[in-house]
Amino acid sequence: MTEFLPHAAPRPRCVLHVDMDAFYASVEQRDDPTLAGRPVLVGGRPPRGVVAAASYEARRFGVRSAMPMREALARCPDAVVVRPRMDHYQSVSRDVFAVFRRLTPDVEGLSLDEAFLELTALPELADDPRVTALGIKDAIRAATGLTASVGAGPNKLVAKIASDLEKPDGLVVLFGAAIETTLARLPVRAIGGIGPKTSARLEAAGIFTLGELAAAPAGAVEPIFGRYAARMQGRALGLDDRPVEPRREAVSLSAEETFATDLDDPKALARELRPLAEKVAARLRRKHYVAGMVAVKIRQADFRTVTRQRSLTPASAESVALFEAAWGLVQTWITEHPGAKLRLLGITAGRLTAASQLSLFEAGEQRLDRVSDAIRERFGAGALMHGSDLGPGLEEDG
Question: Crossing angle for the helix pair 129-144 and 86-103, nearest 10 degrees?
Fold first, then answer.
């Protein structure tokens, strides 16, 4: 006799979104006890600088990331401005992600300070997501001295929204009927991808909350979202089938610099571009990538911004190769726009592939790059300077 047993119901998904609280600013407050409890702005100094991160003490004054530093200080005159230390933040981020990977290999990093964790296949963690989330928060605090906000839900959308609800140091778990009731009262911009322009169009149509978006007639939302209207209304109900993708590879690495004064002198621009190329090349080598494309970002004094790119053959992580390719692009643009003043230059390395193992007799430039990396890692980014950057008459001295 054959017995047919019903298939076990698939286990409901359990996804966590972990977001470090004001990460860069919190690292600076941790490292310098005199900054504790004070408004801290991480970024470049005025008049050209922008805010990369603001502590919660500064956010109370309406300061936010990407705001011009001059405006931020006008809103919060007592704020302390700290220059970013990206290498240090990356080191702290590695400690945070080590906590995640001790629990599950299914970690999708979104940036240095946030990630999705898929717990569905781990019933010992998924069955009580609140306890699991508390354990993660405690482990992060023990490893770094920092706080994180965690959201738990049946998918990435709900988990991300949940993590934003009780910042800083928050924990929100949303499953079942609580999803619809919680989302219904939130503004439409709670869904990623709905920015100021789209939210303004929704509000003009009388749609202010996710509950109103979910319940709106198709005729009201189709002119705004087009063929994605049904999907966005599903998002408003908390529906999302996107997988957690644990092996997302970097698609590009970049660095840029806003100048204290607008520049039009080619020699000065080359001096600014060279350390950017060296920084990107060093990051490529640390991550064991080579780049098959180099792009430059050029922003004029009137904020008009263009990008130019070219292939890099063979693919490389050498500082000289990246600089020469980028400088060639900048020179061409300068020739086409004589007299133009620039306020920003940036360089991006793209089409990244894994670097092959270096041969025993690696090229001289590669050896020099690696020695330079070691010196800068030990003594700081300013420990080395290119000879051509020393100034007129100095580069040829014996």
Answer: 140
pLDDT for res 378: 47
**120 within domain boundaries:** no
Q: Do the domain assignments include residue 396? A: no
CA-CA distance, 246 to 187, in Å (whole number)? 30
In terms of residue numbers, what domain contains 29? 22-84
- Return the closest-CA partner of residue 347 out of 380, 379, 307, 290: 307
E-strand stretches of the chain: 15-20, 40-43, 51-54, 80-82, 107-111, 114-118, 148-153, 171-173, 252-263, 289-300, 305-316, 342-354
The tally of domains found in the chain comes to 3
Which pLDDT score, from 0 to 100, does residue 384 have?
Answer: 47
Examine residue 63 and state whether it is found in any structural domain, yes or no.
Answer: yes
**d(C-alpha 346, C-alpha 256), whole Å:** 4
User: What is the pLDDT at residue 110?
Assistant: 87
Give pLDDT, residue 358: 39
Where a domain ends, among 84, 107, 134? 84
Burial status of residue 254 (CB atoms within 10 A of its CB: 0-12, 13-18, 19 or more): middle
Strands 107-111, 114-118: parallel, antiparallel or unpaired by DSSP? antiparallel
Same domain, 286 and 221: no
Same domain for 256 and 359?
yes
* Confidence (pLDDT) at 250: 63
Q: What is the CATH number of the domain that holds 62?
A: 3.40.1170.60
- On whether the CB atoms of residues 385 and 309 are closer than 8 A, the answer is no
The whole-model pTM stands at: 0.68
166 catalytic, yes or no? no
Structure tokens at 301: 């004094």
* List of the chain residues with pLDDT < 70: 1-11, 247-250, 356-398
pLDDT of residue 1: 39
Q: Spot the catalytic one: 28, 57, 108, 114.
A: 114
